[in-house]
Amino acid sequence: MTTLDDVIARSEHRSWISRVSSRQLFWVFIAAVLACLALSILTDSFATERNLFNVARNFAFVGIIAIGMTTVIASGGIDLSVGSTVVLSAMVISVTMEGGMPFLLAFPLALLAALLVGVLNGVLVAYAGMPPFVVTLGTLSAARSLAMVLSDNKMIWNFGPDHDLLIWVGGGSTLGIPHPLYVLAALALVMSLVFRWTRWGQHLLAIGSNENAAILTGIPVRRMKVSIYGVSALTAGLAGVLMAGWLGSVTTNLGQGMELTVIAAAVIGGANLAGGEGNALGAVVGALLIEVIRNSLILLGISTFWQGMFIGTFIVVAVAFDRVRHFRS
Prior knowledge:
By secondary structure, this protein is mainly alpha-helical. The chain has helices spanning 4-21, 24-42, 49-74, 82-98, 103-126, 132-151, 163-171, 179-197, 199-209, 211-216, 221-247, 258-268, 280-299, 307-328, and strands spanning 173-174, 177-178.
């Protein structure tokens, strides 16, 4: 005989399944898993230890920056300067270490350079009232130009006395797992907690949902925006340092065009371009799906020129899915 408690339990179970299956993150994760399974069957090289190591490392770079991009998009903004911030940070640590500065001093200096780009973006957007698209498009050009000035537009490959340390940090591994993946996991955990349980995370989503209402409730919107763009730039700067160590050399074309990939990862992971929605885990899953697709193009012998087509299509599909979901709700 069915009791009232059984009915309530079944109802709650169905409600939980409905909530999970309605989330874009759930379906993106399923798509990434299915893509991995399909590639494991269709190719002999996808499931190899070396290829999985490369996929994990490459998607970690995108995922780190996508977490920062998610904070900006969730607040109702956009940051087109992340690719240039990557190269600026990488060039700062490369040039300073080449000049003899130890890693422990060059690393925070590189992050500081990235942070200054983010603060500049935030100040111009929040206090000058300039559109984020225009501001970050300007700093995209300015930051890359500054990187060219620092390096005299030359490749930097000698990182001074701590050369091996930088190579180990960005290109090394522990227990068979690349170091950038550890950084991504830690960052995703911290930012997930920040989004969910801190006042800063709640204010961020409130600004993205309705900025005027956020102002009326007393949220310091201007200061929040400066900090938001600062976080985005810091994640790009962190990725730049790791990429310098991974590549073993830095040129001024590092990070070029990375903006589209990062924005795609954030949007595919559930960040709403209209603001008010987004989470760190979604950015990670979105980055994973993009890297799996990119890797599949290579393994299946498809020209990498199609990569932009796939990424652009994913952005449109993700936004369309989000619009349909909101319309139905």
